[in-house]
Amino acid sequence: MTSISTLHYLVVAAALFILGVIGVLTRRNVVIVLMSIELILNAVNLNLVAFSRLWGVHGQVFAIFVITDAAAEAAVGLGILIAFFRNKETVNVDEMDLMKW
């Protein structure tokens, strides 16, 4: 039986990060873009926890701060999205030109 090493965690985190970047770059729906940003932040958290196995609990403590920041980002982002949907009746990224000059 082989043990799970740090490399296994890094491969999973890299896959999550790549999926998140692809979602941010290719999707036009703001909800999907916000979910892709959450995937990217979860990949970062997985890296922090994986490296904390080697260098102590500092990565786990920092991961808690990243989780808190992700929750705040999701709440503010969804609040802005709901307000925008009430005004424009769309969640398409291409049609969000409300703050243009």
Give the helices and strands, then pairings.
Layout: H1 6-26, H2 30-55, H3 58-88
Helix pairs in contact: 1-2, 2-3
Would you mind describing this structure in some detail?
- This protein is an all-alpha fold and 101 residues long.
- It has a domain at 29-90.
- Helix content is 77%, strand content 0%.
- It contains three helices and no strands.
- Helix 1 (6-26) runs antiparallel to helix 2 (30-55) and helix 2 packs antiparallel against helix 3 (58-88).
- It is elongated.
Assembly annotation: single chain
Uncertain residue ranges: none
- Global structural class: mainly alpha
Strand fraction equals under 5%
Rg, rounded, reads 17 Å
Q: What is the typical, i.e. mean, pLDDT?
A: 88
Query: Which geometry do the CA atoms define?
Result: elongated
Major sheet attributes: none
- What is the helix fraction of residues, given as a range? over 70%
Helical segment tally?
3
Order of helices and strands: HHH
- Spatial separation of the terminal alpha carbons: 62 Å
Strand runs, count: 0
Keywords summarizing the entry:
mainly alpha
Briefly summarize what is shown.
With 101 residues, this protein is mainly alpha-helical.
